[in-house]
Design brief:
The complex is a heterotrimer of chains A (237), B (217) and C (230). Chain B is an alpha/beta fold and 217 residues long. Chain B is built from eight helices and eight strands; from the N terminus they run E-H-E-E-H-E-H-H-H-E-H-E-H-E-E-H. Chain C has a single domain (2-229), classed as Four Helix Bundle (Hemerythrin (Met), subunit A) (Up-down Bundle), CATH 1.20.120. The chains are: A mainly alpha (237), B alpha/beta (217), C mainly alpha (230). The A-B interface holds A 1, 3-10, 16, 19-20, 22-24, 26-27, 30-32, 34-35, 90, 94-96, 98-105, 236-237 and B 33-37, 46, 54-56, 58-61, 63, 65, 67-74, 78, 82-83, 85-91, 95, 112, 128, 131-135, 164-165.
Chain lengths: 237, 217, 230
């Protein structure tokens, strides 16, 4: 049998990259579909948080309208942390991260695969949380602008979060470490997302919301680039 | 910690690396597997050097660790398919069936790996390691946690899989098992290679004597 | 060893002298500001320590990059030393800022962009130290520290900008004066000189402390290595 006769690299490395990345995304989504561990944890947590806000803040309808975007984003941030942690823990616990690193692919393919899978989890959570919130508090959250903000915000959060989660999961204090590492660094996303969300929900003009959208885009670009450049150093010894 | 370590394996050789716990066998294997970096020195596998030509090395390398490196929520088939994709294996579906047959898991291919016994997981892990038909196979204590029956099955699988001109390096603290499979024995103790002997050249006491003597040196 | 000890002593004496001189300037040379009175003098220390605290981050991030590129443990020591010092200096800056705010605006805290960003930076420092303390292997600890130092450093300007935009949209009136005028008072030439001298003095103090901390770090690392090799 000739050397590695069944394994050949596709003609271009970018094809190899895409192939590996989609394999990772597919693997994460398929495994999650079976167990639904990550999504259910995120969902239950998110819904609990929304409930708690109602009782903790005791707001009338008008005050509630003012804090809707804040409540939503705090919920997403916290639930997102859960998802990021669990997604990385799966790789660490059964040694699977080694399995990924043994493959003859660029490490960034692994990073983008995990990051996009995490993004899907966050968006899936949002898709369920929004209607529930709408029903519970009798507000209409079906807003194209809001959807855009959620997409941009989740991307930035997932980009940094995946990187930091891959570090946190290797530390002794892994469960509490991720939020501590992530929150201070994700503040610009949180702020911009809350402001932009309020803007869209309140029917503000595009010019008003634009600086926040720009902020989100800038953050997304900078941190996605930084994270994938630095990911190699986190996983390779 | 490893120091002053020299190691060579010729194509097609089956080398068992023996040694007490904490000797550095796992670290040694991880360096060969490109998962850890040697602070000093050179590593070359199949003509390619680490870490610069890591991708080329990895394509030709299969690794079985004592952790299964499998996803419990996926089926056996899906696990192999995933790794096959990561290695860009051609004619993947056919290859998956071939490998499943080799490791005796064709009947369980649609079952979730988390329902597998440890022995079955280990067999599937070997399948995962050879899905891309690597030149070199590295095994780190593959018999850990297996009962007699499972070990016996693993013997069979390993014999099948390693008899095809593959170079195999296996670490083990189970001398008898190693004796059954390997053609050469190296002893790693306190971070250095203490002895190396081909099976044919072993003295009267066989592997056991050779090992005892090497460790006590 | 002799030379570096000599250098360290010179640095120490220099730092001490500069600090004493700066304090002297603050209390004896610079005029008392007419609106705020003596409290304004906190300003000299507040800005100088904040500046040093942020400088530490620059040093740490650069050291992190150099470490990742070359894997020389010395740069990891520089990085951690800088973060530790930065944490102390920023704490002084935050507290002194509070002391200044209370008599001026009758509040201990203002959510203005600079103060908030400085506090967030402090939190990032703390997170950095927690990350390091949660990892056993020295090599991995160094690598992760460098990564977080870089990521944290990149986030600080973004945080500052976003809070600034936030504050222009939601101006908050604190007390009975306009907080966007934070730090705005007429600066006479004497004040400026004192202020700049203060910056210099604190930078030298930082350098001296950094030197000592680095030396300490290198020794600690040597001990750890020797223990592992046993």
């Amino acid at each position: 049998m000739t050397e590695g006769s069944y394994s050949t690299m596709p003609p271009t490395t970018s094809t190899a990259f895409l192939k590996a990345m989609t394999a990772v995304i597919w693997k994460d989504l398929a495994a999650e579909w079976r167990s639904r561990e990550v999504i259910s944890a995120m969902l239950v947590f998110a819904l609990l948080v929304i409930f708690i806000f109602n009782f903790a803040l005791q707001l009338d309808a008008q005050a509630r309208a003012a804090v809707t975007s804040g409540v939503l984003w705090v919920t997403f941030i916290f639930a997102g942390t859960l998802g990021l942690s669990r997604s990385m823990a799966v790789e660490k616990d059964r040694g699977c991260l080694d399995g990924l690193l043994l493959a003859p692919v660029d490490r960034s393919a692994i990073y983008f695969g995990k990051m996009l899978a995490n993004l899907v989890f966050m968006l899936a959570t949002a898709i369920i949380v929004l209607p529930v919130y709408s029903v519970l508090y009798n507000t209409n959250l079906f807003n194209a602008g809001l959807a855009l903000v959620i997409l941009l915000g989740a991307e930035g959060y997932a980009a940094v979060g995946t990187l930091l989660a891959s570090m946190a999961v290797q530390a002794r204090t892994r469960d509490i470490l991720l939020p501590i590492l992530l929150f201070p660094v994700a503040l610009p996303v949180l702020l911009a997302a809350v402001e932009a969300s309020s803007g869209f929900l309140g029917g503000a003009a595009w010019a008003e919301v634009a600086p926040w959208i720009n902020q989100l885009v800038v953050y997304d670009v900078i941190f996605t680039a930084a994270a994938f450049m630095v990911f190699d150093f986190v996983v390779e010894e | 910690m490893l120091r002053d370590l020299e190691f060579q394996a010729a194509e097609g050789e089956f080398v068992a690396v023996l040694g007490p716990n904490g000797a550095g066998k796992t670290t040694f294997l991880r360096i060969l597997a490109s998962l850890a970096r040697a602070t000093l020195g050179e590593v070359r596998i199949a003509g390619y050097s680490l870490p610069r030509q890591a991708a080329a090395v990895r394509r030709r390398l299969g690794v079985v660790s004592h952790l299964p490196l499998l996803y419990g929520d996926l089926t056996a088939e899906e696990n192999l398919r995933f790794y096959g994709r990561m290695y860009a294996v051609e004619q993947l579906e056919r290859r998956i069936m071939v490998v499943l047959e080799q490791v005796g898991l064709v009947n369980r291919r649609r079952d979730l790996v988390r329902t597998f016994s440890r022995g079955m997981q280990q067999r599937l892990a070997i399948g995962r390691a050879v899905i891309h038909d690597p030149q070199v196979l590295l095994l780190d204590e593959p018999y850990t946690g297996l009962d007699q029956d499972a070990s016996h099955m693993l013997d069979g699988v390993l014999r099948q899989v390693t008899g095809l001109g593959r170079t195999v390096v296996m670490t083990s603290h189970d001398l008898l098992r190693a004796d059954a499979l390997a053609g050469r024995f190296d002893v790693l103790s306190h971070g250095a290679m203490r002895a190396s002997q081909r099976k044919a050249d072993l003295g009267e006491g066989g592997v056991v004597e050779f090992y005892k003597e090497a460790v006590n040196r | 060893m002799g030379n570096s000890v000599k250098l360290a002593t010179i640095l120490d004496i220099g730092a001490g002298a500069l600090l004493a001189a700066a304090t002297g300037l603050v209390f004896l040379y610079a005029p008392v500001e007419q609106v705020m009175g003596m409290v304004q003098k906190v300003f000299y220390f507040h800005v100088a320590t904040a500046w040093v605290g942020l400088l530490s981050f620059i040093v740490a991030a650069v050291a992190g990059v150099i470490y990742l590129l070359g894997h020389k443990p010395d740069w990891d020591v520089v990085e951690m030393a800088s973060v530790e010092l930065g944490m102390v200096f920023l704490l002084i800056a935050i507290v002194s800022g509070s002391i200044w705010a209370k008599p001026i605006w009758n509040t201990w805290w203002t959510w203005d962009p600079r103060l908030t960003t400085v506090t967030v930076t402090e939190l990032i420092y703390a997170a950095y130290l927690m990350l390091r303390s949660g990892i056993e292997e020295p090599e991995r600890r160094a690598r992760f520290g460098a990564v977080y130092a870089i990521i944290g450093f990149i986030s600080v300007p973004l945080t500052f900008l976003s809070i600034r935009i936030f504050r222009t949209i939601h101006p908050v009136v604190v007390g009975n004066s306009d907080p966007s005028a934070l730090g705005a008072f007429d600066v006479s030439p004497k004040m400026l000189q004192t202020f700049l001298f203060g910056l210099l003095a604190f930078t030298v103090v930082y350098a001296a402390l950094l030197w000592h901390r680095i030396r300490l770090g290198k020794l600690a690392e040597k001990v750890e290595r020797m223990r592992m090799e046993r």
